[in-house]
Amino acid sequence: MQEELLHSVVKLTKTRDVDSLESSLLSTIHEFIGCQKISIYKSTLGGDELTVECSLSFEVLDDKQYHWQESERILSPSSELLSCLHSACIIAIQGQDGVERRWIPITLSDKPIGAIAIVSPSLSSADQVLLNAFCCIYENYLTILHENERDKLTGLLNRQTFDKKLKQLVEKQVVNHHKTLKASEDRKQYKETVSWLAMMDIDHFKQVNDSYGHVCGDEVLLILAQTMEKFFSSTDLLFRFGGEEFVLVFEPVTFEEVESLLNDFVALVRRTKFPFVDKLTVSIGVAKVGPYDFPIHILENADRALYAAKENGRDQICFFESLVSCYERPAGDEGDGVDLF
After folding, report:
1. pTM for the whole structure
2. Which helix (H) or strand (E) holds 46?
3. pLDDT computed for residue 337 by the predictor
């Protein structure tokens, strides 16, 4: 038992990303405690609104079958889950059938950021100690991963994690693409939803640093990052690439939806008050994340769209696909071939 336990701890701490850590944690808890269902919930506070997401769930269907459920937003969290998130205290309820439901808070920098929910037969004292120990290991290692994946100033994801996160997104989109095509009988009526990558740059940021100093510049970056976290969904990926450059990766939506969302954000930045700066604006270049695109090509397309947005007056968004359509060669025009950029 002790040898197996040590092996599981080694396996948990061997992971290098949050997704792998979560799946390893749920498998380990099931192996040693035998729960019927285990779920990891994450919470984010945007303004006065609390958003709760079930990032991963593991359920035992029978002796040989299991079901994994990935990211799902919870529109109506249970009162017990909300109480656990607000109080950062363990909550346990046992039904008349002997089944126990337990919620264990997860904290980061002394703030509750989520909870692990367990459905199982009544747990013995030894099982409770073991469960709490696994949750503490997860919490401690999550802190380490968070520090490694996050930008020190803004708290957004950093440049080093971008390639891995985008690769995971593209791989997931390939699977979803096949499922959608298989399920869609009427392709003509199907409204395409894809992921999008936006590259954002603060307009004339060098003037802010030159005029007011880097301390003021850092404050501007921090306020902008906080504005992004409050405005965009918790499932969207927000990166600081360095300096005044940011990258945003959105969950699958239509072109019209992402265009409206980004236009609203550009307008919000325009209205936001920053220290010393009378008016701050951003330029954004956007590219589609196709299921078979190379990450480097997606990033290059967004960068070209960003360049076009800046060249055409800044304080606006530009889509790479719109640029390509503008430069499409008329039918019958052979020409010598002109590079788009």
Report:
1. 0.71
2. strand 37-46
3. 41
Whole-number Å distance between alpha carbons of 169 and 290: 10
Instruction: Give dist(CA 46, CA 230) in Å, integer.
Output: 4
Cα 240 from Cα 200, distance rounded (Å): 10
Q: Is residue 292 part of a domain?
A: yes
Do residues 38 and 58 make contact, with C-beta atoms less than 8 angstroms apart? yes
Predicted local distance difference test score (pLDDT) of residue 72: 81
| Cα gap 323→287, rounded to integer Å | 10
Q: Classify each residue of 50-66 as buried b or exposed e, where b means 16 or more C-beta atoms within 10 Å of its C-beta.
A: ebbbbbbbbbbeeeeee
Residue that is last in its domain, among 120, 148, 176: 148
Residues tagged active-site:
244
148, 183, 199 — which closes off a domain?
Answer: 148
Q: Specify the number of domains making up the chain.
A: 2
Q: Kindly state whether residues 144 and 168 are assigned to the same domain.
A: no
User: What number of residues does the chain have?
Assistant: 341
The mean per-residue pLDDT over the stretch 163-170 comes to: 79
Judge if 59 and 132 occupy the same domain: yes
Backbone angles phi, psi at 178, to 5 degrees: -65, -40
Question: 143 and 191 share a domain?
Answer: no
Q: How far apart are CA 337 and CA 322, in angstroms?
A: 19
DSSP H stretches of helix in 44-105 = 79-87
In contact, 31 and 25? CB cutoff 8 Å: no
**Arithmetic mean of pLDDT over the chain:** 84
Same domain for 141 and 234?
no
We report the CATH number of the domain holding residue 264 as 3.30.70.270
Tokens describing residue 208 = 């802010």
Tokens 């196709």 locate to 290
